[in-house]
């Protein structure tokens, strides 16, 4: 597979993402970021660099609360999806009847 076809496939996939898939990707990113920050903080604590560890602690704090917010939006989106799908079907039936 050449790089151009890979980039084209990636761009096509990005266009077809649903909002729920985007939020799920954000959640995974926040978890990965928080894990990386925790590992970095552990290393810095063992090296005795306490001042930068405090900074990392607050970055972890922000990552966790951002994850919680994105998770709430994702759950709401997943709960609303059946209603949205039903409305799309009703609209399609109405438009087919108009023709």
> What percentage of the residues does DSSP assign to strands (E)?
under 5%
Mean pLDDT score, rounded?
A: 88
**Major β-sheet annotation:** none
Give the overall form. elongated
Task: Kindly give the count of domains.
Answer: 1
Distance between the termini: 45 Å
Number of helices: 3
Number of strands: 0
Give the SSE string: HHH
Helix content: over 70%
**SS-derived structural category:** mainly alpha
Rounded to an integer, what's the Rg over CA atoms?
21 Å
Structural features:
99 residues; mainly alpha; 3 helices; 92% helix; 0% strand
Architecture blueprint of SSEs:
Elements: H1 3-15, H2 19-47, H3 50-98
Helix pairs in contact: 2-3
Write a brief caption for the model:
The chain is an all-alpha fold and 99 residues long. It is built from 3 helices and no strands.
If you had to describe this structure to a student in words, what would you say it looks like?
It is built from three helices and no strands. The chain is 92% helix and 0% strand. The chain has 99 residues and is mostly helical. α2 runs antiparallel to α3 (50-98). The model has no long low-confidence stretch (mean pLDDT 88).
